[in-house]
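Hi there. Long-time user, first ticket. I'm pasting a complex I've been working with (about 557 residues overall). I'd like to know whether the download I got is complete or cut off, because the file seemed smaller than I expected. Thanks.
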Amino acid sequence: MWSRVIGCRLAGVVAAVVLFGALPTWSFDYARYQAADLDELLAQPRPAKGVDIYPARPLRLDVTLVSYAENCPTALLKKTMITAGVAKELVDGLQVLGCIKVRSAKGRELRIFVQDVVSSFLPREVPLGSPVTFFAIHVFTAPEGPGLLVNEFSTEAGNDPAKASSDQRTTGTEPPCGCGAPDFHPGIDMSNDRGGSPVQAVDDGVVVKVEEDEQAAVDVPDIGRCGRYVVVRHSYSNGHVAFSRYAQLGRIVDAGGRPIAPGTRIRKTDKIGEVGSGKILHFELRPVVPGALEPVAGWTTRYGADPAMEWSRYQPVNPRNFDPDTFGKIGTGGSPK
Amino acid sequence: MKSNDCFAPHTSFRWPVAVLLLASLGCSPQRAYGQSAGGAGGNTINKGTKASDLRGEWLRAGPGFVCKVGPVAKPPPDPIKPDLLARACLHMGPFVIGDSVQALKTALGTPHRTLPQPNGALAWLYFLEQENRHPYFVAIVSKDRIVALQVTGTVAAKGYSFNHVDLGVTTNTLVQHFGQPNHLEPSEEKDTELWAYRPWPFSFEVREGRVTSIRINEPN
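Hi, the file is complete. Here it is re-exported in full:
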């Protein structure tokens, strides 16, 4: 579990790390998903052959989870998404290797596509047979039923993400580390009782971005004040990719005191920098998935030509819930390469 | 909505003003087209203006299409009925949906083959270059009227383009003219896919990224 990775690996490196209690908020736009009834969706007309394709319609569906893994034609999903007008670059970045099965209120079962990063959370957070709310887009309808892709989920037991986001906007408070915006904190913060403590990479990877300017006002659109930071790209043999970012750093040096530069290959637990004078480490994790399938406005204009900022186009996930072992082993299974 | 509602704003237009037909939202093609004129006499619109004289092109309008009819040199004295105007977008080669079989015989002679079709229709097949080779042209005939037109082949068949799309063009070109389809299905032909724009009455077959067949049906 990545939550344990954070707790163990970083705790061993950054002395007296204490996780802040506040959960990060998310940039996922839950509000655009309209409440829908799966039974009504299942009752809609279906083509006798082939697939009917629609402009991708975001839906919020309350269902029961029946299985964590089902085979399904993911190539068809991507093809129909492109046909439906989803940008090809987003579809190409989409990681969907399978489906899950859900049950409607009237007991009808359906296989639905799910982003890998989402499916990796399900076994730990949603027991089979439990109710769950899926935030999905309706891409097509086949003779077998509607083709839905799950982008996110929530459970009754968990926090209501939409509410959490709303509450955060209402308070308008800055994240503890200052990295983010009043309504958006893209990671988690860890405190330390002294600056200069070493910070280690959470997994093997390659450094893709080093921000040396402590005063860098905005490092991604609308998210600034992260100080000096390092981004590491983690590639897995199953093709999955995730970016980890370590912000509010002091010196950005390795264990030998040499500066860390883009292109440096990093082994997990290698030192990549030191906690800054603020005694806070901001850590975030961004799996390479399209998230809400809509890039942040202006991202392409601003960073489209800068490969070092590729990481910032993907939405952050809660590192406490992220399981890199599952993420890296889905499909062909793989250790970082 | 009554079928006429879709056309009401346009029925008083007179030539040579270009007329936009088929409001894309809320008007299904079958409503818009209504009844095609039947038999040989159906080729005639208002006081001598022939349906075959009218040419239009499909333009994407949001999720749907409009049929934009171009100007003609000699406008008829009376307003033209919209259901006949809509036929201006149903041309392929020298033919238009609704033509009589006599038009086929006059232009192309006896078909090289005829094939029975559902509901008592008959496919009249003409090889356009060499017998038993692509490209070929098919007119589906029912009750002495053409109810569907199709051209099939891997390279352009001269004179048989549809809405600026020829056989052999890439799917990018197809998308430029028609946008993305709203229905996909595998074709009976190997490695071939049907692209449809339902409920509009045209479809394309695509293989290896190129158009291999174009078909226009009579709107239901």
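A couple of notes from our side: The interface with chain A takes residues 63, 180-186, 194, 196, 198 of chain B (CB under 8 Å). The radius of gyration of chain B is 17 Å.
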